[in-house]
Amino acid sequence: MVPTPIGNLKDITLRALEVLRDVRFVIAEDTRTSGFLLRHYGIEKPLVAYHQHNEHRIAGSMARRIASEGPAALVSDAGTPGISDAGYLLVNACIKEGVEVECLPGPTALIPALVQSGFPCHAFVFAGFVPHAKGRQNFWEGLREETRTVVCYESPHRLTRAADEIVKILGPQRKVCILRELTKKFMETWRGTAAELQARLSAEKLRGEIVLVIHGKE
Ligand code: SAM
Asked: Residue 7 C-alpha to ligand 1 middle, in angstroms?
């Protein structure tokens, strides 16, 4: 499992590059995106597609292929594979096949967002993506009494809606931090109460990739 940059191509570890150079093949969420990334680092490897639309079907056969053909790296489009990305099923299939799995430490959006928020980070909850449509109300209600900091991923198109829901369900005074485009040129951090960020979002739209960090209940 090889984490790759979430925006800034300098954010790759020496060990990640070494592993990508050493493996027999690279299993990639998007072979075009990863092909570009590997070329950027001067690495040429056979690429095999593995993503949320085929992972249920091919996780087992992929694990057997790794067992017979030798070490492989799994990469997602960005960050750590398995974190809101395909990967979990392959890890399990490999464990079943007796294939040793190692996840390298490296880029992921949730950790810099959590630390940069300024909210307590000694213990936190990563809630993954806020559901796209159905289940949003339950998602926020399940977090209402949470005293630890909550980190979640949200689409910029649903951010205003998320702010409305946080105001309504977690309360207007709940502290929230919105982090946009981490590690990229137009990185931005908005901090405020849910009500303040709701007002700001009604005047100014945010684009790009977003992490939402919500202070726990005080
Ligand atoms: N595997 C990735 C990781 O380790 O963070 C997450 C992949 S998930 C499909 C993509 C989501 O991660 C985006 O919608 C956004 O919420 C978050 N994300 C990824 N890169 C980001 C960045 N540079 N800035 C802010 N959020 C980011």
From this structure: 9
